Amino acid sequence: MRPIVATISKSALQHNLSVVKQHAPYSKIMAVVKANGYGHGLLNVANGLSAADGFAVLGISEAIILREAGFKQTILLLEGVFCADELKVVADYNIDIVVHSRVQLDMLLSAELSKPVHVHLKMNSGMNRLGFTTDQYVAVFSQLKSSSNVADITFMTHFATADKDPGIEIPLALFQQTIKGLEQPVSMANSATILRYPNLQADWVRPGIMLYGASTVSSMPAAAFDLKPVMQLSSEIIAVQSIQAGESIGYGNRFTATKTTRIGVVACGYADGYPRHAGLLGSQHPHGAPIAVSGKVTRTLGRVSMDMLFCDITDIPEADIGSPVELWGKQVPVDTVAEAADTVGYELLCAVSPRVQIKVVD
Ligand SMILES: *Cc1c(COP(=O)(O)O)cnc(C)c1O
Q1: Rounded mean pLDDT of 115-144?
Q2: Among 23, 32, 163, which residue has the most ligand 1 atoms within 8 Å of its CB, making it the best to mutate?
Q3: What is the pLDDT at residue 280?
């Protein structure tokens, strides 16, 4: 068996959920498990987060998988339904839906359903992605309220700039002004909002990335909030090369040694989800991405290939074929690899490919 494994820690999920609870003690927690649980496996994370009050996903098939696995919590479709047929399924399975557009509103108002459905009415508070504008919002609310297809309504919005300044003050004020006097539960707050605005009053918060122990921006490292990485992506050295000054490695000869260098070849490449350009950005003399070999942090070298990558083991003489490698995890935060690839931890976690075996541990 190829040695690359994504090990998923159930206790880290439980721990991170408790960190959310500390920051939002009066809110219900809608654990965002879209994108196959941010790449960790939908059911793996749902099991680890079974104490959450709800789960948010994108596709109706993910919602059904959760229901059929026995989860009784609220399950929300973050983009709502994509066609009228899905509304019948939603009603049958007791799945909550976002309503964010006229098209969805009309579908819902004209549907014939076995039961009324739970609606999360999305407001566009300035992100300009999904949702009704503030001047449409209350009228849409009234229409939904008088429909026999609607069981109840939660007010929902999403912030674009929770992780930096200016923060959420302006969109939050817009949201609150618009719904003033209307007594409905409120849903807001992704991870960055939860961490930066702990006094926010919300009936529901919607953490995603923090549950997986990663951060939204490098200025807020996950460890600073006592979040624990849930995924360790690990593999092994499968070959060792010793090269002399002037010799190069890999496609395009992107690394040339200036002294005698010991190179470890790791069974992990971009087809496993490792970012191809990690460590090669913006420099003629690439500095590599962090990687740990035999428990010691070193750096990648040269260009990542489809199935393998190179790292510097000159100063790790004990490293040899079979030595353990951490691509990311406790020793090498996923966010540091993401930074070396000019992206965010979210993208790396979600991109772990199906050929990587997933192992769940307590
Ligand atoms: C993905 C998503 C979240 C979770 O965001 P994180 O930054 O991962 O915490 C919350 N709300 C909505 C609407 C989302 O799409």
Answers
A1: 97
A2: 32
A3: 79
Cα–Cα distance measured from residue 58 to residue 69, given in angstroms and rounded to the nearest whole number = 17
Chain Cα centroid distance, residue 247: 40
According to the model, what pLDDT value does residue 163 have?
86
Annotated catalytic residue 10: no
CA of 24 to the centre of ligand 1 (A): 16
How far is residue 32's CA from residue 190's CA, in Å, rounded to a whole number? 9
Q: Which two tokens stand for residue 99?
A: 């309503």
pLDDT tens profile 155-183:
999 999 888 888 899 999 999 999 999 99
Q: Which whole number is the average pLDDT over 240-268?
A: 96
Centroid of ligand 1 to alpha carbon of 362 (angstroms): 26
Q: Which atom of ligand 1 is nearest to the CA of 162?
A: 7
Average pLDDT over residues 243-269: 95
Residue 251 known to be catalytic = yes
Residue 282, pLDDT score: 56
Mean pLDDT, range 315-337, rounded to an integer: 98
